[in-house]
What does this fold into?
Amino acid sequence: MNEQILDMLKELRPEYDFETSVDFVMDGLLDSFDIVSICGMLEETYGIKIDGLDIVPENFSSVAAIRSLVEKSLGK
Amino acid sequence: MRITFLDYFEKTVLEKTSLCAVIHNDKAITFGELRERALWFAMRVAETVNSAVNSPIAVFLPKEIDTVAADIGIMYAAAPFMNLDVKTPKERISNILERVRPAAVITSRKFAEVFGSVEIPVIFTDDDNTEIAPDTQMLERRRSKLIDTDPFCIINTSGSTGTPKGVVLNHRSFFDFVDVSDEIFGFDGSEIIGSLSPVVFDIFDFELCMLMKHGSRLIILDAMLGAFPARLLENLVKTNVSFIFWVPSIMVNIANMGLLDKIKLPDLKLVWFAGEVFPTKQFLIWYDSLSHTKFANLYGPIEITLDCTYYIIDRRPSETETLPIGVPYRNTDILILNENNERCKVGEDGELCVRGTSLAMGYYNLPEKTSTAFVQNPLNSAYPEMIYRTGDVVYMRDDGVIMFKGRKDTLIKHMGYRIELGEIEHIIENDLRIIKYCCAVYDRGKKEIVLFYENDREISVQEFRKAISSRLPSYMIPAVFIKVEEMPRNTNGKIDRLLLSSRVNGEK
It folds into this structure.
């Protein structure tokens, strides 16, 4: 799943290096338009519905964080 | 007599010296401190560009307390401010600077590189913070010749030729909008404003006017919060926000996420929205969740200073009903004109044109563009009188309420931003030259910009995004790219935009 998520990010923002960033949100790699797009992509790819209360910066800071968000949403 | 907004601000500061004026995360500033900081900026501007009265001063800062102080400071130095978005690609900034040629730029060291090769004096906010005793007499002398139609600010908006147009707005037009708003909505300074708009929106300028005239408190909400609606709402609760003026796109997101049931907003008394059509289904979620809140739909392009019509939603609309743009603001006259420049009858579609004090002075350094949009009132041949042609198609209902229908041209509203689709095409076709021909259309359902292109080889999404993001801000980058064998063309050889648009919007 990590690979898949990384590909999504790269497609959205080819100009940035997601592999070296420690926090995508703090480093300014993702803006508010991107978060909306990522949520849409994740919901479509994994057939999930992300709870609005889970859309917080911490859950988009890294590939691992996005992955646990997906897993949490899958578990619901 | 009032000439500039400083005439109000000086009074506000006297009354509220030690009260909180602006809050940004864990930082806060009182009215007294804000005036002091603004005067510091004014002195820097005055010593940097000694004679430049009424010459624009650019501000290149993220949205923070210093941006508010810089804007007011520029006013103290008898000049209009021109806020720029720090997220804008460098080349676009250069184009704006070249067209407007501001007398100076205010920025911080962090952005020094952006202005490295520009021949404009730069004032750094974090440079030499030593106390300069403000020479208020000198600043007053600078302002003594100003009149109320001198520029308040310049706002850049998308232009079809690839370079934004700078709309020049004066103090009097802001007085007009705020005066009438006060009458309708009873503003008195008790407002706590949740400020979410970027500093390049006219909404931010209105918030600044509310702070200066009434002493309303500004809560600066980081743009990033737009992506995290739950955090955004928690912030409103924490800071007791009572008034928001937002674009519908973020409000639609909040409604769709079902957050209004989970996070209550007891202090929110007034909600204004403008800039786009608010889909009634999502609006009803807001309306039903906040029974103690008054909602108003406002409408107007930047060129008439904020908005020129309003509609207070005083009864629950049905889900199939479209929200009207409402009735004209007092002291603004709306003319709905048909193709022969005659007044439309009730129910007849026509272009919305505006007459009044609210009109902008025109576009900076663009006489031709100015003269096509700001024209002589065709209903008056007796003396010079300007009207502004919005390009918006509307009609009037028999109860006198105005309904929005669409655009005469290819201007769209997307995520609250006004975008000229022709500008995207111009940049891709003529500047980047990555494809032969292209045509951008708007998918109104998905709210996406779709780019059709004709080219020998297919271009990957990554390649497109990478190239375009070097020239255009992210909200202008198409979401979908579709390669076609040949662009459909109409009888006079032009790309058939209507056909492509109907293809993505599922119309026949």
